[in-house]
Design goal:
- This protein folds into 3 domains: about 1-120 and about 325-370, Rossmann fold, CATH 3.40.50.1980; about 135-310, no CATH class; about 380-490, Rossmann fold, CATH 3.40.50.
- About 30% of the residues lie in helices and about 25% in strands.
- It has 12 helices and 24 strands.
- The strands form 6 sheets. A 6-stranded mixed sheet has the order 9-6-12-13-18-14. It has a 5-stranded mixed sheet with strand order 10-5-15-16-17, with no helix packed on it. Strands 8-7-11-20-19 form a 5-stranded antiparallel sheet, with no helix packed on it.
- Helix 2 packs across helix 7 (about 330-350), helix 7 (about 330-350) runs antiparallel to helix 8 (about 355-380) and helix 8 runs parallel beside helix 12 (about 480-490).
- One of its GO terms (cellular component) is cell envelope.
Length: about 500
């Protein structure tokens, strides 16, 4: 998919560059997804560009839902810039692809940063549950990045009812399948290409269940079959007696994956590799029993207080992502690659501004070199044993890799309910075992932070702030944000800068 996007973008840039359009008389109109991209574009473009962002200041690109007014903004673009690598929610990417004029470059910065020296990293999710962590995935080639893969429950057998849903960051469930109200064509979960998502699975009674999933691909106006498969679930019974010889999926991270290249579904296990649907049994053990919350929005699961078997989504909030971590800019060296991509795109769009763009680019790259050294020095001042990051969002892998920190995570296994005493104890032990001096929250993700704040308070651990996807109000540029982050890390973790 990255190769296809890069080639298409290069062709678009060549076409627009050769046209000599140069933008409007008032400057090139650039529409971008985030404030970070806006900042870089304004620095490079200077007074030759007019930059408009779609995700508002402080907004979360992972969950922002575009409006009709946003479509009108995008339609006026003379250059469109997104981060992509599934950073932005898929409706936002579809908004750009559907409304950017055909002759206008529509550039994904992250996918195109690697040739400019960016280092791309896999998005590693190392969350330890005492059950299997079961989600959905998609892999394979599509014609467009706006394609959608729909996965629906086509057939169901079992002694009770089954549901599959996702709990958003504010605790509201989005129901995709629920056998209690029958099977319908619109009971579908949709994913973009090369994506992965976490979901909750619930079962009302012990026994053996079979869930048959059917997938379709909608791409470039065409809808095609993408495969059907039946998976077996052992709920509260011995999984090794259900299907002797089958691989029992009882731990780790597994995706029921639509393989677009082969037209089928597989179970894709982080540790055990690819497994055929008829060769696996998914274990939903007795220890997975949870109590149905009293809140009205969870009434679809049954009566409040009743017990159900649940495989948890583990990460609170809608969490669709790909295999590559999209938060490249947390390593300043990667931000330099973004700036070079933007500069070349502006030069192709507005050749008469080459001298301005190159001068602004080079001056800013020098500033970023200084920033890189500042961040490195601030983190180096932290005692090595204290360079532990506990956060509410997996946005800091590049920062940890570039500057010598370790990511330590926590999990609230049932986002649909208050965490149990056992779960809070596990988080408490993590903080105590690592002798963590502070934990970090992102202001735009406050809804995910309540448990972390409470445990930190109980343990006498400071709660500090890091900014990942959104610029802080008091640090309205990328350089300001990274300096603030570095200073906060140093201050909170025992450094001297």
């Amino acid at each position: 998919m990255r190769r296809t996007l890069t080639a298409a973008t290069a062709a678009a840039l060549l076409l627009t560059g050769c046209s000599g359009a140069g933008g409007s008389s008032d400057g090139v109109d650039v529409v971008v997804t985030t404030e970070l991209i806006k900042n870089w574009t304004e620095v490079v473009g200077g007074d030759r560009v007019n930059v408009e962002t779609i995700v508002p200041p402080g907004g979360d690109p992972h969950s922002y839902e575009p409006s009709p007014n946003d479509a009108a903004k995008v339609a006026k673009a003379e250059l469109a810039l997104t981060n992509h690598l599934l950073l932005e929610d898929h409706p936002l990417i579809k908004l750009f692809d559907a409304n950017v004029p055909e002759d206008v470059p529509n550039l994904s910065l992250a996918e195109n940063a690697e040739p400019y020296g960016a280092k791309l990293m896999p998005l590693v999710e190392n969350i330890s549950l005492d059950t299997v962590w079961l989600g959905f995935g998609v892999r394979g080639e599509t014609e467009t990045r706006s394609a959608e893969i729909g996965i629906r429950l086509a057939e169901f057998t079992g002694p009770g009812q089954a549901a599959m849903f996702l709990t958003d960051a504010f605790g509201q469930p989005e129901i995709y399948w629920n056998s209690a109200d029958g099977l319908a064509e619109n009971d579908v979960i949709t994913l973009p290409p090369n994506a992965h998502t976490h979901v909750n699975w619930t079962f009302t009674e012990p026994g053996v269940y079979t869930l048959t999933t059917a997938a379709t691909l909608t791409d470039n106006g065409a809808v095609t079959d993408a495969g059907t498969a039946t998976f077996t679930y052992a709920v509260g019974v011995n999984p090794r007696e259900v299907q002797p010889g089958a691989a029992v999926l009882d731990s780790g991270h597994v995706d029921l994956t639509v393989d677009l290249d082969t037209g089928g579904l597989i179970a894709r296990d982080d540790d055990r590799g690819e497994l055929a649907p008829d060769a696996v049994v998914i274990d939903v053990p007795t220890k997975a029993i949870e109590v149905i919350p009293a809140e009205e929005q969870f009434a679809f699961l049954g009566a409040a207080g009743e017990e159900i078997y649940q495989l948890p989504q583990a990460v609170l909030g809608k969490h669709v992502h790909g295999e590559i971590d999209p938060h490249l800019w947390q390593d300043v060296a990667n931000a330099k690659a973004y700036v070079q991509v933007i500069a070349d795109a502006l030069i192709e769009r507005d050749p008469e501004g080459r001298e301005t763009y190159e001068a602004n680019r080079d001056a800013y790259l020098a500033e970023l070199d200084d920033l890189d050294a500042e961040v490195a020095a601030a983190i180096a001042s932290i005692p090595e044993a204290s360079r532990q990051l506990i956060t509410t969002h997996d946005a800091f892998g590049y920062l940890a890799d570039a500057y010598g920190m370790q990511i330590a995570g926590f999990v609230v296994p049932n986002p649909a309910a208050e965490p149990s005493a056992k779960q809070v104890e596990a988080l408490t032990e993590t903080i105590a075992d690592l002798q963590v001096r502070a934990v970090f929250v992102e202001p735009n993700l406050h809804a995910r932070a309540s448990v972390l704040r409470q445990v930190a308070e109980d343990q006498g651990v400071e709660v500090c702030t890091l900014h990942g996807d959104a610029l802080p109000q008091d640090a309205p540029t990328y350089i300001d944000m990274m300096r603030q982050n570095a200073s906060e890390l140093s201050r909170c973790l025992g450094g001297d800068q």
